[in-house]
Design a protein that fits this description.
There is one protein chain. Helices cover about 20% and strands about 35% of the residues. The chain has 2 helices and 12 strands. It folds into 3 domains: about 1-55, no CATH class; about 60-140, Immunoglobulin-like (Sandwich); about 155-200. A hairpin with a 4-residue loop joins strand 10 and strand 11 (about 135). By secondary structure, it is an alpha+beta fold. The longest helix has 20 residues, at about 155-175. Bound molecules: calcium ion (2 copies). One calcium ion binds near residues 101, 103, 105 and 106.
């Protein structure tokens, strides 16, 4: 076999069993040599044969993961590789699955407002077609979504300012306009009212 003696058989029928797992996958050659009592040798034509042993995949994918961002939409990413191919990567936050990606690059966008403002852990699990699972090292990350206070309602502020200006106006109206300070205050109030009207 492949030019090397693989075995002999001294009695008919002449046979030889070979464990093909001892051979590499691929094409091999076989020839038989028959001998008579006088030592004459007859060599057969060479026959090609192929070996194709399928070995079960027991190698789990290797995977690592990372997080970008601390608020709003945060991005998870995983680097995964396998001897036969990665079929899917799951992302787990605090050991709860948040989503999968079945094609590289393996990523997941998560609305971080669904998580508490605190420290969390991220794990990525990578699967191959044979069901082997590789788990990444745990990655710690923090979520910090600042609570946005609602914008001040201009209408309310304007209404309040108008009330105050009206009240000042009423008070000034009871005072003597011959007093120059009162006169100037009345002018100021008028200007402020104009400004408030413009803002409206
Ligand atoms: Ca594998
Ligand atoms: Ca992807």
């Amino acid at each position: 076999m492949d030019g090397v003696l693989a075995g002999s058989d001294a009695s008919s029928p002449y046979t030889l069993d070979i464990d093909s797992t001892t051979l590499a996958n691929g094409t091999h050659t076989l020839s038989a040599v028959a001998y008579d009592a006088a030592g004459n040798a007859g060599v057969s034509p060479t026959v090609n044969f192929s070996v194709n042993n399928v070995t079960a995949d027991t190698t789990a994918p290797s995977v690592s993961t990372s997080v970008t961002g601390t608020g709003g939409t945060i991005a998870f990413a995983a680097e995964a590789s396998d001897n036969t191919g990665v079929t899917r990567v799951d992302f787990l936050v605090d050991n709860v699955a948040k989503g999968s990606d079945s094609s590289g690059p393996y990523t997941l966008a998560l609305d971080s407002t669904t998580l508490s403002n605190a420290g969390h852990t991220l794990l990525a699990k990578a699967y191959d077609a044979a069901g082997n699972v590789g788990t990444s090292a745990s990655v710690s990350f923090a979520v910090n979504n600042t609570t946005i206070t609602p914008a001040v309602d201009n209408t309310v502020v304007i209404a309040q300012m108008t009330l105050r200006l009206d009240s000042m106006d009423a008070t000034l109206a009871t005072m003597s306009t011959r007093n120059s300070k009162v006169k100037s205050l009345k002018a100021d109030v008028a200007i402020q009212r104009d400004l408030v009207q413009q803002i409206k």
